[in-house]
Amino acid sequence: MHKARIVGAALIVIAVAGVTYAMRPVAVPSEAIAETAARLGGEEGVGQVYTIIPEQSQTLFQLDEVLRGEAIVVEGKTSAIAGQVTVGGGATTLDLGTIAVNARTLETDDAKRNRAMANVILNTDTFEFITFTSDGAISFPGPLVVGVEYAVEIPGTLTIRDITRPVTFAAMVTAADTDTISGTATATVLRSDYNLIIPDLPFIASVGDEVTIVVALVAVRVQ
């Protein structure tokens, strides 16, 4: 009986410690997103470079969750996204290079979920950024025409924490004018592919394995 009490007390302590760890404040970004963009940079001399404008761009994810018996769709988003788009080949190719999202800034509609997501699921203390690196330039059938929307596929690799998997985004790209490129890209990944385990906490319900990622970008030409 005495041993059982000791084990029970130990389990309670571990559970409390786990909740405390998950609910601690999310780490602040280590750098401004503009500094991230400058660090990523772009290839010189290969075409016209456009820099992503975070204030006009957004990354979001969606996944299914059952909360207190009710099926809902959880959505998290951030505008802390950095990178550069290179248009080359006489405006017939586009290269995303590497796009970085600061995972510490992702937010849903629930503060507890945000803390558990950042501290336990994504481990943003150690893995601050989620990155997508394209496999290379994609080609258009001809030079980009202002105002025309182009449907393209952008293959590359998506890194979440320390796991990298191949992912292809389906995208719509538009040259809004001669100085602005905009686009929206969508892909579906599996949470299990990135070993993103939902912690066993009383306020977290079951969640789906499929995660939809939507990236909406606006980039302006570097003068």
Q: Helical region count?
A: 3
Integer-rounded radius of gyration: 21 Å
Q: SSE order, as H and E?
A: HHEEEEEEEHEEEEEE
The helix/strand class is alpha+beta
Number of β-strand runs: 13
Terminal Cα separation, in Å? 76 Å
Low-confidence runs (pLDDT<50, min 5 residues)?
4-21
Please indicate the percent range of residues in DSSP E strands (runs of 2 or more).
Answer: 35-45%
Q: Could you describe the largest sheet, including whether it forms a barrel?
A: 13 strands, antiparallel
Helix content: 10-25%
Mean pLDDT: 86
Overall geometric form: elongated
Describe the protein.
With 223 residues, the chain is α+β, with helices and mostly antiparallel strands. Helices cover 18% and strands 43% of the residues. The chain is built from three helices and 13 strands, in the order ααβββββββαββββββ. It has helices at residues 2-22, 33-40, 111-121, and strands at residues 48-52, 58-67, 70-78, 81-82, 84-88, 93-95, 98-102, 129-134, 138-139, 149-160, 163-177, 180-190, 210-221. A hairpin with a 4-residue loop joins strand 5 (84-88) and strand 6. The protein is elongated and about 55 Å long.
